[in-house]
Every structure is written in C-alpha cells, then in structure tokens.
Specification:
The protein has about 280 residues and is α+β, with helices and mostly antiparallel strands. It has two domains: about 5-195, 2-Layer Sandwich (Alpha-Beta Plaits); about 195-275, Immunoglobulin-like, CATH 2.60.40.10. It has seven helices and 18 strands. It has helices at about 20-25, 75-80, 105-110, 130-135, 140-145, 165-170, 190-195; strands at about 5-10, 50-55, 60-65, 85-90, 95, 115-120, 125, 150-155, 175, 185-190, 195-205, 210, 215-220, 225-230, 235-240, 245-250, 255-265, 270-275. A four-stranded mixed β-sheet has the order 8-1-10-9, covered by helices on one side. Strands 11, 12, 15 and 18 form a four-stranded mixed β-sheet that branches. Strand 2 (about 50-55) and strand 3 form a beta hairpin. It is elongated, with a radius of gyration of 23 Å. The N and C termini lie far apart (about 70 Å).
Length: about 280
C-alpha cells in the first residue's frame, strides 16, 4: 500500500517562495471536489515558510522551514472533526471534507502545528492535501514540482526504492516535534537549524593580534566531548546542541590553554577569545 510522505531538506531551502506561489496558483479560485474548495487569495499559507534567526551580530544564522500539513497518522484534527469532517485515506493523506466540515472552526484550533486555516467566506477549515487530485492523475504536489533547489523530496515512504524512504531509513530525516505524538508523514533534514543551539567564537593570538588558525577546540557536556579546529579566520562553531552546561577548552602549541564554562540557554557567540603566548 502506498504511503505518501515528504522529506524537507532545510539546508537547501533559500526562501525563494516558489513552493508558496505554486500552491497559491493551484488552489486560489480553484475547487477540487471532493477534496478541497478554493482557498482565498489572502490569509492562508498551505505551504508556510517561517524564518528562524539564531545568534547575534556578528554571528547570525538564518534558516527557513517549509511547513505544510504534516499528514499525521494520529491526527488531532480527525478527532476534533464531527460527522466525518476530517478523515485519513489509506495512502496516509488527511483530508478535510469541504462539505462535511462546514462551520467546524474547532478543527483549526486542534492542529498543534498551526497549519489549518479558517476560510471566513466559506465558513470552512482548510489545509494542504499533498495535491491529492494531482496524485490521482499520476502527478506530484505543485510545491515539489516548483522547488528549484530540491529541498522538497516527495515519495512513497513504504517503497524502499524511493528517495524519500531512503532518506528516512538513513536516519538523516526526523519529525518536527515528535514529542507531540502525532506520527507525521513529513520529515526534516538538518532540523537542528530550527530547533537547537550553537556555541561559536573567534580565537586570536594575543602576541601578534592575528587570527588563530588550527586551534583545537573541545566541547564537553555530561562526560561526552566533541572536537573541532579553528579555520583561517580563527572561527570555530559547535551546532545542534541542547541546552545545558558545557566546558570549552582551547589549545594550541606554544600558547596557554583556555577553559570557558558555558551555561547554554540560547545560541552563544563568545566573541573574540585571546590566547596568551607561554
């Protein structure tokens, strides 16, 4: 049995908005019964692109997270709907019936991801359907078709030969907010750029006031350590970190080592760190 799913590579998304524009072109003023009624021109983002900024000047990192309906296997919206207003097809796609769901605004409020929208004119909750009407004709979702960077990988998650299935089994892809226990069929690569923290800094040799290249930086937390070296600008970075207490140790032959204790609650750029010659 086919199980449609989407893998989103956050590192490949440059916020060109081709996915959003293609989705709007597909659904604005267009009905696709029995799956969707036309969406309004404004106010609905069936493919949203929220931006996440991490760090502070001069070390800022920006990432975008394409956010469609998660097509949850344990979908709260199905439980919130009445009289079959929301149902899940055998292929995993969750559909809001445009007739049975009329007037059921509680369906909008049930979605923890915030990807169901209220059509005030039609008094109807609406959302992404993976372009199910296109799938039934052998096509693919418009957002996937329009993406110029390959950030959206769509396919049958139960087909071991599909790229989406391979990415999922390789453990490169993970669910957004797996702790919500909705079992989504949308997964993300490099999700840490949205959900986790980094520690970074720039090392300088005190005697020459030059960038300290090839300094060994070791970060330790709860007895586990990771290591990197500074680049030719003296920069180092550890990303994908959870909140916690860390110890950073910097070492270079001929210079006194330096240890910095960090209570990481948000992204931390340490600025310039000077090593003194011994």
């Amino acid at each position: 049995m086919t199980k449609w799913g989407l893998v989103v590579d956050i590192s490949k998304c440059n916020a060109c908005y081709c996915c959003f524009t293609a989705c709007k072109d597909e659904y604005w003023d267009n009905d696709y019964p029995p799956y969707t009624a036309a969406q309004p021109r404004h106010g609905q983002l069936w493919m949203n692109l929220p931006k996440t900024e991490r760090g502070k000047h001069p070390h800022i990192k920006v990432a975008y997270m394409p956010l469609p309906c998660m097509q949850c296997q344990d979908a709260p919206c199905i439980k919130a709907g009445k009289n079959g207003a929301v149902y899940q097809r055998p292929d995993g796609i969750v559909v809001i019936d445009p007739k049975n769901a009329e007037g059921q605004e509680q369906v909008v409020k049930s979605c923890p991801y915030g990807v169901i929208y209220w059509n005030e004119e039609k008094k109807l909750p609406q959302k992404c359907t993976f372009c199910v009407h296109r799938l039934e004709e052998g096509g693919i979702p418009r957002c996937v078709q329009a993406c110029p960077t390959g950030a959206l990988i769509f396919g049958d998650l139960d087909d071991p030969h599909s790229e989406a299935s391979k990415l999922l089994k390789s453990a490169k892809a993970e669910a957004f907010h797996a702790d919500w226990n909705t079992s989504p069929n949308v997964y993300y690569i490099d999700l840490y750029k949205i959900t986790r923290r980094f520690i970074a800094g720039t090392v300088v040799f005190g005697d020459t006031d030059e960038c300290a290249e090839s300094v060994t930086a070791t970060l330790t937390c709860d007895g586990k350590s990771v290591m990197t070296t500074t680049n030719n600008y003296g920069d180092f970075e550890f990303d994908g970190l959870d909140a916690g207490k860390y110890k950073l140790n910097l070492e270079f032959a001929g210079y006194a080592s330096k240890t910095i204790n960090i209570d990481l609650k948000k992204d931390n750029y340490l600025g310039e760190i000077v090593l003194a010659k011994t």
